[in-house]
Specification:
It is built from nine helices and 13 strands. It has a single domain, classed as 3-Layer(aba) Sandwich (Rossmann fold), CATH 3.40.50.720. The strands form four sheets. The chain has a seven-stranded parallel β-sheet, sandwiched between helices. Helix 1 links the parallel strand 1 and strand 2. With 271 residues, the chain is an alpha/beta fold.
């Protein structure tokens, strides 16, 4: 039986673990919350309390990685913009601390969950061949972390750059509803639903597509004003009021490799 370790069983990692369990895969799942250990265990996941920090890592990291061939890293940078200096390189240091443990483990393949924020606000069509140009601190650190993993010869790495994450319990309209003078009304949306996130990860594993970089954004790009106004109506929420000033942001993320290499079909009904 294949065993996969998922570092970070949160909003995406937990349902991903449950989906993989249904396919007969044994899952080691980590959390930083003691209260969540029993929740993971009840779902059939081998649960571990693992904390990866910039100054160290939990002692049980070895047992968390033990006997796994694949490691999925799904931990967000969580950088505080209010004090970026204190968080400088913090996420990169976490990945640096993690790598030696991967090297000495049974893990041969790593899937790193990243973000399309590594492209910054470059305009036009963005593909995997577009040179990353991160503008935010989290985007910069994600790109550095990607390169650390890709350059390591001890294991194979694939990078999965997700667009804006949405799901039944997570949608930007819940924060935008009723607000006024919202910026960038004509900027295109670049979103991906949780179900597609899971489906794409499953295909990368099924097809053993390693040493690749994938964009993962649904081929669905209405303007922010069009999309969020419609979503407010559908969810019976106050409509957001957008400003009249046109946006310079015209970035459209394309996921050609997901659609061609993996032959993956997005479930656009979810959007």
């Amino acid at each position: 039986m294949t065993k996969i370790s998922i570092l970070g069983c949160g909003w995406l990692g937990f349902p991903l673990a449950k989906a993989l369990l249904k396919k007969g895969i044994s899952i080691n799942g980590s959390t930083t919350s003691e209260n969540k250990l029993s929740i993971l265990k009840d779902a059939g996941i081998n649960s571990f309390l693992v904390s990866v920090e910039s100054d160290g890592i939990s002692e049980n990291i070895d047992t968390f990685l033990a006997e796994s061939e694949i490691l999925i890293i799904d931990i967000p940078p969580k950088l505080r913009a209010a004090d970026p200096s204190s968080e400088k390189k913090a996420f990169v240091e976490k990945i640096k601390n993690l790598i030696p443990f991967i090297e000495k483990s049974t893990v041969k393949k790593v899937l790193f969950v990243s973000s399309t924020s590594v492209y910054g606000d470059d305009n036009g069509l963005v593909t995997e061949e577009t040179n990353p140009n991160p503008e935010t601190e989290s985007g910069k650190q994600l790109l550095l972390a990607e390169n650390l993993l890709l350059e390591n010869q001890n294991f194979e790495t694939s990078i999965l750059r997700f667009g804006g994450l949405i799901g039944e319990d997570r949608h930007p309209i819940k924060f935008l509803a009723g607000k006024e003078n919202i910026e960038n009304p004509d900027a295109p949306v670049n979103l991906i639903h949780q179900s597609d996130c899971i489906g794409i990860i499953e295909e990368i594993i099924n097809q053993s597509n390693w040493n690749e970089v994938f964009n993962a954004v649904a081929p669905f790009h209405p303007t922010r004003e069009e999309y969020y106004t419609q979503k407010a109506i559908e969810m019976n929420l106050p409509e957001p009021i957008f400003g009249s000033e046109k946006s310079n942001i015209k970035k459209v993320i394309l996921s050609k490799k997901v659609e061609t290499f993996l032959n993956y079909k997005f479930n656009l009904e979810e959007y």
